[in-house]
Design goal:
The complex is a heterodimer of chains A (287) and B (518). Chain A has 3 domains: 67 residues, no CATH class; 119 residues, Orthogonal Bundle (Cytochrome Bc1 Complex, Chain D, domain 2), CATH 1.10.760.10; 79 residues, Cytochrome Bc1 Complex, Chain D, domain 2, CATH 1.10.760.10. In chain A, 48% of the residues lie in helices and 4% in strands. Chain A has a two-stranded antiparallel ribbon with strand order 1-2. In chain A, strand 1 and strand 2 form a beta hairpin. Chain A starts with 13 loop residues before the first strand and ends in a 6-residue tail after the last helix. Chain B has 17 helices and 15 strands. Chain B is elongated. Chain B has 3 domains: 209 residues, no CATH class; 127 residues, no CATH class; 118 residues, Sandwich (Immunoglobulin-like). Chain B is of the alpha+beta class. Classes of the chains: A mainly alpha (287), B alpha+beta (518). The interface between A and B is medium-sized, with 32 and 30 residues. Chain B: This is Cytochrome c oxidase accessory protein FixG. Chain B: It comes from Aminobacter aganoensis.
């Protein structure tokens, strides 16, 4: 122990620490401060007994109050479910058309559908529902199987070309490589390309029109406007599911690709499907 | 006129007196402040009346804002995120006004401290004001200093018991009222009071009142000067704030020393004595329990009650007031230089007084001009500038605003006819407590048309929206630009206008088109 140092001016003992000539006085702490400190220790002990605290080998003490943050979350989730149950019941009871007409319910269903979409749909349709080649963009106003609310609901509930659902949308475009001559395929591709934009070989277009009328109009319509009953796309508009341009069209004519979508009705339940339909309808292309 | 030996002498010692060796932890020394009277005491009564009045009564002031907003003049409506201050209503994004006020409060504190020292501590700090109030109660029930010391030392008796019970009960009533007043700033006061007494208020209201009751009672009644000395950081900060021209409560030892309790006798013996008769009145009135004659110290809150106490003693013995006074360090040091005998390095009372017994003409007194110096002017200037800026911002602020969030995923959508569509979330802020009819229209991109989700209307260039009073209205807007016009430009302007008041706001929005079409 070093010798006791007394500050001259105040007569108080110093700690002996000095910074730039300034010494630290060793004034006594107030006793209430000491008691406050003891009180915090007692508090900590009581707290660690009352609440989960002490680590054991494979678990922790649970505390005599039985508190757990997991139970808290569970309660809060239950409370949230309870809070929205009135809306959920209404969604369950009403048709998608009725939901759409009800401002409050539509708002609820849109929000709920948005959440469900992020979990179930974005894997194929993209996080902004913008699609990608082969997977339709849901924001636009081109619909393969129809864009009114009932049609959207039907498509989501039963899927497209989905084996497990009897009511699923089914249609298949033949592979025209087996039906048409290569020259004819080039001609019809030129014709379809000319319907929206430019054909690479404009001189083939008139012949292609004839090939189209003979082979394609049955499904796509005489004016090539498509047929939503059988999911035949409109070939005159600016939107192509796979790719645009004559070469891509020729490929699709020879050996068509067909997309498939699972039926969500069984899997998610009717309420979720309704919510998803309302959400998809709200993306700007709903009819 | 009294002879100085006739002045009542009080037995009291400063709590931080270092005469004895102190242990590691020390118990609180009880302080029994004596009642003071004089100019500063009067001033403090006035400030106590004003500050307590503001605190307790403000929530009860009514202010009519029409049927769509609360009629409480000052209300922090946290649940609805609205703040009302008389004619001013603040939305959360306008909270910078409050930040500006806090900056002003900070600079104001610097200004006040550099000018008149710890005036905040001594006069307006809630701790000081409530301790003062609690002391009034204590004095009223138990009597002044001597009676209280006697009572404190007396064995328990019925008299002591009822006095103590009455004192603590009154303190608790004040504490409940203090904690209670706080919650009225956050909800409609009359409704909340009704709910509170009938047990229907929110649990958080009862908890808040309980906590503030406890802090008021403990800090104001039980801990008092301990809060200032040990818990508050301001006594430490003030050391950096004061300069040699700041006014602080000062014991002028250049005229007080050597102090003597028997001045006449000393003078007869040929000794020269100062003005201090060592009556300890200054220590007895001190709510912090310190001795100002030990010099400037962190415990001193500059409440100036020692000035009152000393002045009344000086009046009695026929000396000039101001033995303890508000003085600057510069004046004090120059006066000390005059008073100190260069040979003995002791204070010689003869050096400060001329032969007629008046104070020497060379003695420095505080001049008002000292307040105006570069430092205080800079503080005052910064304070005023922020104040003016806030005022200008407040008077010119918008009460109708439009904010637009553009869809970024996808950035644009190609429609079947080849046109391009962009989506926007338009937020209309109707910041007045009245419903308004707002027209949202577009300027620029003359071929572009917009449609609002949920509004069954054909595409147009302008839509009419009913905005609820004092609310944010969010609408989803799609804007479509035909294929032929895609190259025309990539931005346009949303305009919102209240036709009734002609108030309007604009937002320049981007319009995204595919790269190939630009």
């Amino acid at each position: 122990m070093s010798e006791k140092q007394i500050d001259e001016l105040s007569g108080v003992e110093t700690t002996g620490h000095e910074w730039d000539g300034i010494q630290e006085l060793n004034n006594p702490m107030p006793r209430w401060w000491l008691w406050t400190f003891y009180a915090t220790i007692v508090w900590a002990l009581v707290y660690s007994i009352a609440y989960p605290a002490w680590p054991l080998i494979s678990t922790t003490t649970t505390g005599f109050l039985g508190y757990s943050s997991r139970a808290d979350v569970k309660n809060e989730l239950a409370a949230a479910e309870q809070a929205k149950s009135a809306y959920v019941e209404a969604v369950k009871a009403k048709s998608v058309g009725e939901i759409l007409a009800d401002q409050n319910l539509r708002q609820f269903a849109t929000a709920a559908g948005s959440a469900a979409f992020k979990v179930n749909c974005i894997q194929c349709h993209g996080s902004g529902a913008q699609g990608s080649p082969g997977f339709p963009n849901l924001n636009d106003d081109e619909w393969l199987w129809g864009g009114n609310i009932d049609q959207i609901y039907q498509t989501i509930a039963h899927g497209v070309r989905f084996d497990g659902d009897e009511d699923t949308h089914v249609s298949e475009m033949p592979a025209f490589a087996d039906v048409l001559e290569p020259q004819q395929i080039n001609e019809v591709a030129a014709y379809v390309a000319s319907l929206e934009g430019q054909a690479d070989t404009p001189d083939l277009v008139p012949a292609g029109a004839q090939v189209f009328a003979d082979n394609c109009a049955a499904c796509h319509g005489e004016n090539a406007k498509g047929n939503k009953e059988m999911g035949a796309p409109d070939l005159t508009d600016a939107i192509a599911l796979y790719a645009s341009g004559q070469a891509a069209i020729a490929r699709q004519v020879r050996q068509p690709k067909h997309g498939a979508m699972p039926a969500w009705g069984e899997r998610l339940g009717d309420v979720k499907v309704k919510e998803l339909a309302i959400f998809v309808h709200s993306l700007g292309g709903g009819e | 006129m009294l002879d100085e030996t006739e002045v009542e002498r009080l037995e009291v010692e400063a709590v931080n007196s270092a005469k004895t060796r102190q242990p590691l932890y020390s118990a609180r020394k009880k302080v029994f402040p004596k009642r003071a009277s004089g100019r500063f005491r009067q001033f403090k009564w006035l400030i106590m009346l004003i500050t307590l009045g503001i605190y307790y009564l403000t929530p009860w002031i009514r202010w009519d804002r029409g049927p769509y907003a609360p009629d409480q003049a000052v209300l922090l409506d946290i649940a609805n995120r609205r703040f009302y201050f008389f004619a001013i209503e603040i939305w959360p994004q306008e909270f910078f006004y409050v930040a500006g006020l806090l900056v002003m409060a900070g600079i104001g504190l610097f200004l006040v401290t550099s000018t008149v020292g710890r005036a905040w501590c001594g006069y307006t700090c809630p701790q000081t004001v409530w301790v003062d109030l609690f002391l009034v109660v204590e004095r009223g029930i138990e009597g002044d200093r001597n009676a209280r010391i006697k009572l404190d030392g007396a064995p328990w008796s019925f008299d002591k018991l009822w006095k103590r019970v009455a004192k603590h009960a009154t303190w608790l009533v004040i504490a409940v009222a203090t904690g209670g007043a706080w919650i009225f700033y956050f909800a409609d006061a009359p409704t909340l009071l009704g709910d509170f007494v009938t047990g229907q208020a929110a649990p958080v209201a009862y908890m808040t009142v309980a906590i503030l009751t406890a802090t008021t009672y403990i800090f104001g009644g039980l801990m008092r000067e301990q809060v200032c000395t040990y818990m508050c950081p301001w006594p430490r900060i003030q050391a950096a704030m004061l300069d040699e021209n700041s006014l602080t409560v000062t014991y002028n030892d250049w005229r007080g020393e050597p102090r003597s309790r028997h001045a006449k006798k000393a003078v007869a013996e040929g000794l020269s004595v100062g003005d201090c008769v060592d009556c300890n009145a200054c220590v007895a009135v001190c709510p912090m329990g310190i001795d100002i004659r030990d010099g400037q110290q962190l415990e001193c809150i500059t409440c100036a009650l020692c000035i009152d106490a000393c002045d009344s003693v000086m009046d009695k013995i026929g000396k000039e007031r101001g033995l303890i006074s508000y003085a600057t360090l510069a004046d004090y040091q120059s006066n000390m230089a005059i008073a100190t005998d260069p040979v003995t390095a002791r204070i010689d009372p003869k050096r400060v007084r001329n032969p007629e017994g008046k104070l020497n003409a060379a003695i420095a007194h505080f001049r008002l001009g000292r307040i105006f110096r570069l430092r205080t002017l800079v503080y005052a200037g910064a304070w005023s500038m922020i104040g003016v800026a806030l005022l200008v911002a407040l008077l010119s602020r918008d009460r109708l605003e439009v904010n637009v969030l553009q869809d970024r995923n996808p950035q644009f959508v190609r429609l079947a006819d080849g046109s391009i569509r962009n989506g926007y979330t338009v937020k209309l802020l109707n910041m007045v407590p009245e419903p308004r009819t707002i027209v949202l229209s577009m300027e620029g991109l003359p071929e572009a048309m917009m449609s609002v989700v949920g509004m069954d209307q054909p595409e147009s260039r302008s839509v009419t929206v009913e905005a609820e009073p004092d609310r944010l209205k969010t609408i989803k807007v799609y804007v479509r630009l035909p294929r032929e016009n895609l190259a025309e430009g990539q931005s346009f302007t949303f305009v919102v206008e209240d036709k009734a008041s002609a108030e309007s706001d604009t937002y320049v929005a981007k319009f995204n088109v595919p790269e190939a079409a630009r």
